[in-house]
């Protein structure tokens, strides 16, 4: 005779210790289509949103999508800060709340950056002239405008340097040290001029770590970059990029990122850019998170597959509850579960809603295909150890036929229909009859 005891054990989750693994440059679309774009970013799977972009004008004003010559704003653009005051509320009154909402739980976004620069952008030339004229003290217009920006939207912790012209180490170092005093860390997005970036980072990080991440452009002008050649920044994490604006092939991105991960110190990936709805944010973010894991299960109890018969990509999960945002961080695309394997003693419940609404079904054993009505509908998952629910101790003869017990612990007959405990030898499982 054997005694069976069923109990719950918590599965451990290991969270990666670098700042982010997947990032996306979010452009004017998040202002033009603010309601849908903010929601999609929160559910995307990207851990960092780099908001593109802030321009530094000749007088030190900060603008976005604004013509300085004609003093007119494009759609959803305007003057962000001027004369040491935040002025963007005149143009976009919802903007601070929208940016804050990117971080509001449940959201995969945990880090926000403002980008300065880009191809043909003259911001760093203007910054150089302003610093040469005024310095970087607290009374300068450059300092006051960025301080006003930080006060208005404190959730943005980083300034991303996408300098693509007007390379000058001295003024760039002075500028980013000034930003650090205000409360901004620095990241860089180089595509050429390796020696310049090496000198900039070396000087910024000489006494404290001001520059935190290198986003290496491996597209456009940097299409021929090999991340291994850019291993000049010490222990600063390097993320590799992909241009989804001109290349929509996700498999090409996955192949390239996997190769760079294997042959360089690349430890994360990013996408340029989010400026329309031509591709699925969640699909690309989940793919990057599978290559550069954001969270991993130390004690997995179930593995979920993209295709039938345990084919396609596979992602392991521990015991627990997983919303759509959680699944994206693990690398499971929304609506992408077709089969799964689950350890003995655990159940898997699938839901079509992002937060455990719209029950699809519950299983207590591995399933090579979840069926036509359930396939590719999953947006949240609950994995739990099968409880005894009153069956704390059941004696069974290893040689005897299976016996069935209801959830109150009473043995039931062959005509019983519903959820029950099946005891067979030394094994007990919760099943539907």
Question: Would you write up a description of this structure?
Answer:
This protein has ten helices and 26 strands. Strand 9, helix 6 (169-182) and strand 10 form a beta-alpha-beta unit. It has 433 residues and is α/β, with parallel strands linked by helices.
The largest beta-sheet arranges its strands as 3-4-8-9-10-11-12-13
Mean pLDDT: 90
Percentage of residues in DSSP E strands: 25-35%
Total DSSP E strands: 26
Q: State the share of residues found in helices, binned by percent.
A: 10-25%
Shape: elongated
CA radius of gyration is 27 Å
| Total count of helical runs of at least 4 residues | 10
Terminal-residue CA separation: 26 Å
Poorly predicted segments: 1-19, 391-398
Topology:
Layout: E1 2-4, E2 13-15, E3 22-26, H1 29-32, H2 34-42, E4 48-56, E5 62-67, E6 72-82, E7 85-86, H3 95-101, E8 111-117, H4 123-134, H5 141-152, E9 158-162, H6 169-182, E10 185-188, H7 194-204, E11 211-216, E12 238-243, H8 250-263, E13 266-274, H9 281-291, E14 295-297, E15 302-307, E16 311-317, E17 320-322, H10 324-330, E18 339-342, E19 346-351, E20 359-363, E21 380-385, E22 394-396, E23 403-405, E24 411-412, E25 419-424, E26 427-432
Parallel strand pairs: 3-4, 3-13, 4-8, 8-9, 9-10, 10-11, 11-12, 12-13
Antiparallel strand pairs: 1-22, 2-14, 4-5, 5-6, 6-7, 15-16, 15-18, 17-21, 19-20, 19-21, 23-24, 23-25, 25-26
